[in-house]
Write a structure and sequence with these properties.
Elements lengths: L30 E3 L14 E9 L9 E13 L6 E15 L5 E17 L6 E15 L15 E8 L5 E6 L21 E13 L1
Length: about 210
């Protein structure tokens, strides 16, 4: 029997949302794929990031026994009178679902994040969206017989996401994964995930970016 990854080490691969906050990536005037490089980043206006996707830790093919769902609805907000965006608002929802080898449900971990920054990082001619925020809530749903981790209502670490296409040509979401219950911070507001971030392959869905 496959065992649920220890949620105490969410850094191994944690997860996604109890209630999706976004729908499929939008299309139309002003919208581009969030995985495409953004030119003219320094001239960016208020950003909007919207969509949902299924992700996998191992590769670009959807996993049979576990997967992650990510939904995002976020926007940068300008200060009154114009100027550069100084804050962001919105929600991120993630959920990691596990199945047993016979296909039966084993468990899931879900959380929501309150967005505090949406910006662009990287070279001005090939920038990528970065989203940060604080974990608001974590929910566990385990099959009978599984050990359920304790609820930690005061655990609200900063986390971050970056959306781009990897050198291998596959769209990916880099995620700075907080360790459940760990008081240390793995991300900083408005900064892209560091080298220790998990790279999650998109296996379905997508995200739209509007400037």
């Amino acid at each position: 029997m496959r065992k649920v990854l220890p949620v105490i080490a969410l850094a191994a691969c944690l997860v996604a949302a109890a209630a999706p906050v976004a729908t499929a990536a939008p299309h139309g005037a002003g919208w581009v794929s969030a995985f495409e490089p953004v030119a003219g980043a320094h001239a960016a206006g208020p950003l909007r990031l919207l969509g949902s996707a299924r992700l996998d830790v191992q590769g670009p093919v959807a996993g049979r026994f576990d997967w992650l769902d990510l939904a995002v609805d976020a926007r940068a907000v300008r200060r009154p009178g114009g100027g550069e965006p100084v804050r962001a608002e919105g929600r991120v929802a993630m959920k990691h679902t596990f199945l047993n080898e016979d296909g039966s449900f084993q468990g899931s971990v879900a959380f929501t994040v309150a967005v505090d920054c949406l910006t662009l990082a990287g070279p001005a001619d090939a920038a990528f969206p970065v989203l940060t925020g604080r974990v608001e809530r974590v929910d566990f749903d385990f099959a009978p017989g599984q050990d359920v981790p304790p609820t930690l209502p005061d655990w609200k670490p900063e986390t971050s996401y970056a959306f781009r296409t990897g050198a291998d040509g596959h769209p990916k979401v880099a995620w700075a994964v907080p360790g459940y219950g760990d008081p240390g911070e793995v991300a900083r507001r408005c900064e892209a995930p560091g080298e220790a971030a998990k790279e999650l392959y998109r296996t379905g869905g997508g995200f739209g970016l509007r400037r």
